[in-house]
Amino acid sequence: MRSEPNKELEAFAYRFFERRGAVLEKNENGFEALLPQSLSDALNTSEHIHINSGDHAGGQGYSVNYGSELLEKMIDAACRGLPLLAYRFEVDYLKKEGFERLVADQFKFFNAVGKIENQAETKTEYLFLTCRYTAQSDEQKHGLLNFVFNMETGAFIPGMAELVFAPGNIFTQLKHGFPDNKPLKGLIKNIKLNTQLTLKEELHSFYESMTRRFKRDASNLEEYYAALKKEMQKNLKRHALSQKLVQERRQKMDLLPAELERKRSDLYKKYSIRVHVEPCAGVWIHTPAVQVIYQIMVGRKRDSISFTYNPITRALDPLVCQGCANNTTNIFFCDHLHLLDQSCSSKCPLCQKNHDCP
Questions:
Q1: Which helix (H) or strand (E) holds 49?
Q2: Are strands 23-27 and 62-63 parallel, antiparallel or unpaired?
């Protein structure tokens, strides 16, 4: 009878090859695998290999017992990527009315008016992303942050991370996993933009501690150099000093401000905080939603924008500024009807970049 560890390792190996595009065929001794060339190159194997089960380890082919060379390579490859899972959110009831009120409650239009033109059930996708951060200064602080992004619009969804796995929410895991064609790279800019505010709140006490220590050490440093200058001035009054020694002491005193500034600069570097953030796990959430088409009027010009009703937050997702990609609920439009946030409203980045903007 095969031991549980061997069965688990064999199952891990099977999933590893399956998710990387290998063609697999099980047999009584384990399974055969036809690997893509890129995978065989990474593992330093031939393209056609046989994986022995625990009962047949030691024969021709490869073993995936603990400590085996192939298993170590597979674990390294598995840990190198971003772990991603896919789930479908099961919805019993989807909102069908009251969207006019939601728009009015959540959004403010500054140079436009609008009305709902149409609404329809649709499907949308979210990325639940867990990021690891490291704050490095005289001390280190580590932690995890959770973010959720609408994968179609790129909008960061505040508060959704806390609601996703709330009691009563039902998810079904999807066998096909995370889709390879999803624009994860396009979300990197949005991740960087939206981690700043969250990190500011998360690291507030850490920043306060480093600031307090910098001020304390800088104050001690200033007191030390002030006392040193005072002592040097006192020594100058001694009659036994030669003119040459007096001149040398004065030159040293003249260098004290520059030396103090260098020491302050070293302290500032010591207590400055450098933050590194990297994604460490992701969940693709596929869910029914409602798309609300909203007609906007800016003077005599008309256009339509789209809102997404999110059944998990039970609210409309924020819109994204076309100029800077930041979330916005305060809506402005330029003369060419680009949707902008307040920071971009005075000078539209898109019109400025494209002089032939229609």
A1: strand 48-52
A2: unpaired
What one-letter code names the amino acid at 20?
R
**Strand residue runs (E) in the chain:** 23-27, 30-34, 48-52, 62-63, 84-90, 108-109, 113-136, 140-150, 170-173, 274-298, 301-310, 315-316, 319-320, 327-328, 330-333, 339-340
Contact 191, 279 (CB under 8 A): yes
Nearest to 62 by CA among 38, 32, 103, 18: 32
CA distance 244 to 242: 5
Token pair 């009015």 is found at: 104
Q: What is the reported pTM?
A: 0.68
Contact of 284 with 183, CB cutoff 8 Å:
no
pLDDT tens for 37-91 read 988 888 989 999 998 875 544 446 888 888 888 888 888 887 776 777 889 999 9
Please tell me what DSSP assigns to residue 319: E
